[in-house]
Amino acid sequence: MLITNAPDIRSSEITPQGLYLRRREFISGAAAVAAGLALTGPFTGQADAQTAGPGKLARLATIKKSGYGAGEKLNSYDDITSYNNFYEFGTDKDEPAVQSRAFTTKPWKVTVEGLVNKPGDYDLDEFIKPFALEERIYRMRCVEAWSMVIPWVGIPLADIVKRLDPTPAAKFIEFYTLKDPTRMPGQRRNVLPWPYVEGLRLDEAMHPLAILAVGLYGEVLPNQNGAPLRLVVPWKYGFKGIKSIVKIRFVDKQPRNTWQDMAPNEYGFYANVNPSVDHPRWSQKSERRLGEFRPRPTEMFNGYGDQVASLYTGLNLRSNY
Ligand SMILES: Nc1nc2c(c(=O)[nH]1)N[C@H]1C(S)=C(S)[C@@H](COP(=O)(O)O)O[C@H]1N2
Ligand SMILES: [Mo]
């Protein structure tokens, strides 16, 4: 098991911080050894003061540090978990944190279907068990022109795709969020066509920056951030990062995606961050980083162009927004 129970060491207030961190480190190591896990890297995730979790949710054991995002100043856990877009739990930024409180994500099933050699209904724990968890600190840019820096914990999507073994006919992947209005109160209103769906070209999905996230700040994902499993593609606008995934389908044609269905003149399939293509109703040239006052210039591909631009050679990025 990669997920440990919430440790009984929330007492950061009463334990000196250094000792607290070392104790957490020890416990994560002990849990991993008890579970017989092959240890691929040092337990640096928890020992790093910047990404140590707040001790609110179950901690993730054995997180590999990846080097992505070194030097970035992180947004606080509070920023990341109280300012959310997750329309299944309300359309205001502060609603998902409140309205998702009772949401349960255990048990959780992930259905894999379509043009793939290992289809099936996987229990989430079983689905992620073969993979090492990595810390990935990414800049995230919402289409609404705000941004954050978030220390995700996840699995490279490429590793998962390779293991699921798509057939040669598969050209795209489609993702589906849970549809259950009894558990997701926002789905009782017709603000979006439910369930939320998103997609990637297979080569985008195989890019090393694309991950499926299971954690944040070293702990399991809070519900409002897309527990228990969500997509993270940091060179694209935030709406591509579909939350609370229950189905992954391999297909041969470009899938629909929810925001393109809603307003095709405003949101496209690619959704690559692009400061030179404005949204019809606002500029995309700059962004407001949560916690900062002065706007920042928005960078092409959210600053990941050196890594991802070659995916789009020959594609007109003005018409393919
Ligand atoms: N299922 C689902 N996924 C979703 C959304 C949503 O409303 N429903 N909102 C998207 C948008 S617009 C953004 S900016 C990100 C926000 O992710 P965060 O709350 O973890 O920052 O989630 C994306 N994924
Ligand atoms: Mo967004």
How does this model look, in words?
The chain is α+β, with helices and mostly antiparallel strands. The chain has a single domain, classed as Alpha-Beta Complex (Sulfite Oxidase, Chain A, domain 2). The protein has helices at residues 17-34, 44-47, 77-82, 95-99, 124-128, 157-164, 202-205, 258-262, 305-308, and strands at residues 63-65, 109-114, 120-123, 133-141, 146-156, 172-177, 197-201, 211-216, 219-220, 230-232, 245-251, 286-289, 296-297. The strands form two sheets. Strands 1, 4, 5, 8, 9, 10, 12 and 13 form an eight-stranded mixed sheet that branches. The chain has a five-stranded mixed sheet with strand order 3-2-11-6-7. Strand 12 and strand 13 (296-297) form a beta hairpin. It is globular and about 45 Å long. The termini are far apart. The model is unreliable at 1-47 (pLDDT under 50). Molybdenum atom is lined by residues 85, 142-144, 238-239.
Series of secondary-structure elements, N-terminal to C-terminal: HHEHHEEHEEHEEHEEEEHEEH
Small-molecule binders here are:
the ligand Nc1nc2c(c(=O)[nH]1)N[C@H]1C(S)=C(S)[C@@H](COP(=O)(O)O)O[C@H]1N2, molybdenum atom
Largest sheet: 8 strands, mixed
Using DSSP, what is the number of strands? 13
Helical fraction: 10-25%
Based on secondary structure, the structural category is: alpha+beta
Total helical segments:
9
Mean pLDDT: 88
- The N- and C-terminal alpha carbons lie at a distance of 41 Å
The name of the CATH superfamily reads: Oxidoreductase, molybdopterin-binding domain
**At the first level of CATH, what is the class?**
Alpha Beta
Low-confidence stretches: 1-47
Q: What is CATH's topology name?
A: Sulfite Oxidase, Chain A, domain 2
* Rg from alpha-carbon coordinates: 19 Å
- What is the molecular shape? globular
